[in-house]
Specification:
The protein is mostly beta strands and 89 residues long. The chain contains no helices and six strands. Strands 1-2-3 form a three-stranded antiparallel sheet, with no helix packed on it. The protein has a three-stranded antiparallel sheet with strand order 4-5-6, with no helix packed on it. Strand 5 and strand 6 form a beta hairpin. The radius of gyration is 22 Å and the shape is elongated. It starts with a strand and ends with a strand.
């Protein structure tokens, strides 16, 4: 089990991992193990912007989304940017 994790937090997090060994042939069967970890994001995403709209932008009820030919720009905390294509159907 992992406790202390918050998926919306981009600052340091202190996690506690707890494991109970239940393997009957293990030398540590029945023992509980606990580990504490500090997790830090080196360069979290600051923003995502649409650079180029996908080819298809209008849909009817039940239509499958088609992101072909779209592009997004991802900006990281240190100012680096990365462009990604959205070629998925």
């Amino acid at each position: 089990m992992v406790s202390g994790y918050n998926k919306t937090k981009v600052t340091d997090q202190a996690l506690t991992i707890t494991y109970q060994d239940e393997d009957p042939i293990s030398a540590t069967n029945g023992q509980k193990f606990i580990a504490n970890l500090k997790v830090s994001l080196d360069n979290p995403t600051q923003s995502i912007a649409i650079k180029t709209q996908p080819t298809k932008t209008e849909y009817g009820y039940g239509d499958t989304i088609d992101l072909s030919n779209g592009k997004i720009t991802i900006t990281k905390a240190n100012g680096d940017t990365e462009e990604k294509r959205t070629n998925r159907q």
